[in-house]
Description:
The structure is a single chain. The chain has helices at 20-36, 50-57, 62-66, 85-94, 139-156, 171-185, 194-202, 216-220, 231-246, 291-294, 309-318, 338-353, 367-376, 387-392, 410-418; strands at 40-41, 47-49, 70-73, 76-80, 104-113, 125-134, 162-167, 252-253, 265-272, 281-287, 302-308, 329-335, 358-360, 379-385, 395-399, 404-408. It has 419 residues and is α+β, with helices and mostly antiparallel strands. It has two domains: 20-170 and 230-318, Bira Bifunctional Protein, Domain 2 (BirA Bifunctional Protein, domain 2); 329-418, Anticodon-binding domain (Rossmann fold), CATH 3.40.50.800. The chain has an eight-stranded mixed beta sheet, sandwiched between helices. A five-stranded mixed beta sheet has the order 13-12-14-15-16, with helices on both faces. A hairpin with a 4-residue loop joins β15 (395-399) and β16. The radius of gyration is 28 Å and the shape is elongated. The model has no long low-confidence stretch (mean pLDDT 95). It binds adenosine monophosphate. Adenosine monophosphate is lined by residues 83, 114, 116, 121-123, 126, 128, 260, 281-284, 306-308, 310-311.
Amino acid sequence: MAQPTFSTHLGMVDILPGEVEQWHTLERIIHEEAKKFNFEEIRTPILEQTELIARGVGQLTDIVSKEMFAFERGEDQYVLRPECTAPVARAYVEHHLDQRGGTQNLYYIGPMFRAEKPQKGRQRQFHQFGAEIIGAQDPAADVDIIALMMSIYDRIGIRNTTLKINSVGDPESRKIYTKALKDYLRPHLAELSEISQKRFENNPLRILDSKEQEDQPIVDNAPVITDFLTDETADHYKRVKALLRELNISFVEDPHLVRGLDYYTRTAFELISPDLGAQDALGGGGRYDLLIEEIGGQPTPAVGFAAGIERLLIACEELDIKLAEEDMLDVYIVTLGEKARSWAIKHLPRLREAGLSASMDYIGRSIKAQMKDADRENARHVIIVGENELSEGKFVLRDMKASEEVALPFDDILEELSA
Ligand code: AMP
């Protein structure tokens, strides 16, 4: 086949017919589960102010320092959103959503953009669903967020997962811990990988989730943040764990879990799947009590998760989970001749009004080619219309699966098919 003139950009993927049906099912499940948990959907623009993401996600993160699709237009700095927590927090502040009273339980589904090196499970345009509870400090909110995330995977049948949790502390405990960590790492600095050496000064916590082989023995023996938590934060973490146990949500504690986004405080979690390969995180999240103040709102505690749709679909494929049945067409009208075609055009609306999906040939193919087309479209029934049928007022209705035919007036066909 000839090389096409245009193709998608690197790491950007078309979702084609045949695939998109799975997305519909998944989106329906997300909407249904979110409703059960009393979350409301929010849709924010794809483009945000670059400064919001820089401040919200954190200057030193990979996302902001290396992976933003950002551009200028006139006076304004635009970025294609790399995640949706900062945009949701912006919308919360901008529209004074706190004045609606209570906590704001919000969820979203949509595309995100990060200029990462594409590989399996890692794209430059990918999709996330996620949820946020804004305005609650209580561990019950952390646990309800995790429960919502887990219930979506459970509904789909992805159950062979590991939920990792940690507490990344509050600013006070993080300050003391960062010092202890740096004191520990300093004598090993030369043995660390290049990337970890770079992170030592400005972002030493990220060294903990290094994937580099040479860092592992050093990281394994590093002090852990949970030994440095303030009493209040330690108590919060204890209560989160107790509630998870009460809900029978199993988890493992991972003191090296820090996650790539700066805004997390206290609870951090990640859901891992052995069915994903190297990019094994289905989703993750945590508490971000400082974000809303950071972007100009009143101090407001919040907790949320974000999960990747493409990775979820990879897991489904590995586990042989079918999210969507093959699409079927209820009726295909096969026509012979011009008169039959105009009859078909006029009768398609009646089939569709009766709630049936219906189509016909538009390009004057032979009967044989039309039957083949009906097969390709997975038609349940075919109505065959030619000169004779038109003059007799009876049409052949063929049940494609049973290979049976009857000749009936159109009204009777309609009745039979809508029964
Ligand atoms: P994060 O916003 O980095 O916490 O990511 C949350 C989830 O989004 C991850 O666990 C992945 O499932 C998914 N994700 C993040 N980045 C990508 C990417 N570049 N391509 C595909 N999925 C991604």
